Amino acid sequence: MEKIEHINYIKVPVAKVYEALTTQEGLAAVWTTDLVVKPEIGFVNEFGFGDEDYTKMKIVELSQNKRIEWECIESDPEWVGTGISFELSEKNGVTSVVLKHFNWRELTEFYQFCNYNWAIFLFSLKIYCEDGAGTPYQRRKF
């Protein structure tokens, strides 16, 4: 099994980062504006990326200001059955975010592309939390 793992540091309190990762407003500013999100265990968040390409993530864990975990139940076949987690911790007003995308069956070209895009996601999260405007999918030019 393969796993993608990234860390980034965001100069805001952990509660702000947690809110960005669990609310419709936050995830619309960071990942995609086409979404249905509810911060509730068992809820299936839906994320749209054009051409009726929807990714559905079931919320498996919500530990306030500490950890979020999703299970992919519908998307590209390489994503289905994988999990995404965000582990958060704060020290001196700086929040570290460890993003893991785990249970990939193999390392493929799509895996490599997603690895790149998760880094972009974390950068978008950082600029949204620190500066008030992220770069969701619909506004990306790279």
From TrEMBL:
<dbReference type="InterPro" id="IPR023393">
    <property type="entry name" value="START-like_dom_sf"/>
</dbReference>
<feature type="domain" description="Activator of Hsp90 ATPase homologue 1/2-like C-terminal">
    <location>
        <begin position="11"/>
        <end position="128"/>
    </location>
</feature>
<protein>
    <submittedName>
        <fullName>Uncharacterized conserved protein YndB, AHSA1/START domain</fullName>
    </submittedName>
</protein>
<comment type="similarity">
    <text>Belongs to the AHA1 family.</text>
</comment>
<dbReference type="Pfam" id="PF08327">
    <property type="entry name" value="AHSA1"/>
</dbReference>
<dbReference type="InterPro" id="IPR013538">
    <property type="entry name" value="ASHA1/2-like_C"/>
</dbReference>
